[in-house]
């Protein structure tokens, strides 16, 4: 897989910073030190509003040891009724990172819904690389995820040297 130098340097810098980021106790989910998923963005809004929207603590739900915020009770209730549908793929870790057998944080504004599933990326530069071969990157990430999900970001980085 060929990535341009900017994407490679961004990924390398993120790998170095991964230890400074707090992740949820459940290492399968990307959440901050307070167990907040997607930096507080409403995961349902990507599907219903076709854009990233910051949620509110007033409307929240827990899923796999992480807290999700929503813009409304309606969005919260949609999530509770079908968490698997609305939760981001790969535990909310970067889809391109997962394709590279690594775990990276995400920018909630670097996103895409593909075949009814939400994929997030580290940033918009990394997303550009991911978009070059969405089906191939999803397939590779899906192959990598079962082993990768049980690792911390640091363990994944060490495993890949």
List the helices and strands in order.
Answer: HHEEHHHEEHHH
* Helix-residue proportion: 40-55%
Q: Approximately what portion of the residues adopt beta-strand conformation?
A: 15-25%
According to DSSP, the number of beta strands is 4
Distance between the termini: 16 Å
User: Main sheet: which strands, in order across?
Assistant: 1-2
Gyration radius from CA atoms, angstroms = 15 Å
Indicate how many domains the architecture comprises. Answer: 1
Structural class: alpha+beta
What's the overall average pLDDT, rounded? 89
Low-pLDDT stretches are: 15-25
Number of helices: 8
**Which outline best applies?**
globular
Q: Main sheet? A: 2 strands, antiparallel
Would you give an account of this structure?
The strands form two sheets. The chain has a two-stranded antiparallel sheet with strand order 1-2. A two-stranded antiparallel sheet has the order 3-4. 40% of the residues lie in helices and 16% in strands. It is an alpha+beta fold and 161 residues long. The relative contact order is 0.17. The model is unreliable at 15-25 (pLDDT under 50). It has helices spanning 5-17, 45-48, 73-81, 83-86, 95-99, 124-131, 134-148, 153-159; strands spanning 56-63, 66-70, 107-114, 117-121. It has one domain. A hairpin with a 2-residue loop joins strand 1 and strand 2 (66-70). It is globular and about 45 Å long.
């Amino acid at each position: 897989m060929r990535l341009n130098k900017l994407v490679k340097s961004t990924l390398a810098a993120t790998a170095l910073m991964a230890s400074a980021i707090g992740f949820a106790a459940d290492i399968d989910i990307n959440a901050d030190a307070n167990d907040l998923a997607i930096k507080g963005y409403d995961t349902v809004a990507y599907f219903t509003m076709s854009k990233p929207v910051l949620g509110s603590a007033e409307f929240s739900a827990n899923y796999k040891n992480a807290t999700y915020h929503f813009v409304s009770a309606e969005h919260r209730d949609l999530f509770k009724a079908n968490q698997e549908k609305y939760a981001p793929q790969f535990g909310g870790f970067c889809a391109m990172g997962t394709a590279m057998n690594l775990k990276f944080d995400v920018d909630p504004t670097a996103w895409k819904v593909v075949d009814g599933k939400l994929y997030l990326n580290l940033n918009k530069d990394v997303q550009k690389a991911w978009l070059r071969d969405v089906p191939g990157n999803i397939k590779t990430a899906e192959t990598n995820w079962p082993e990768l999900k049980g690792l911390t970001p640091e363990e994944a980085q060490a495993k890949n040297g």
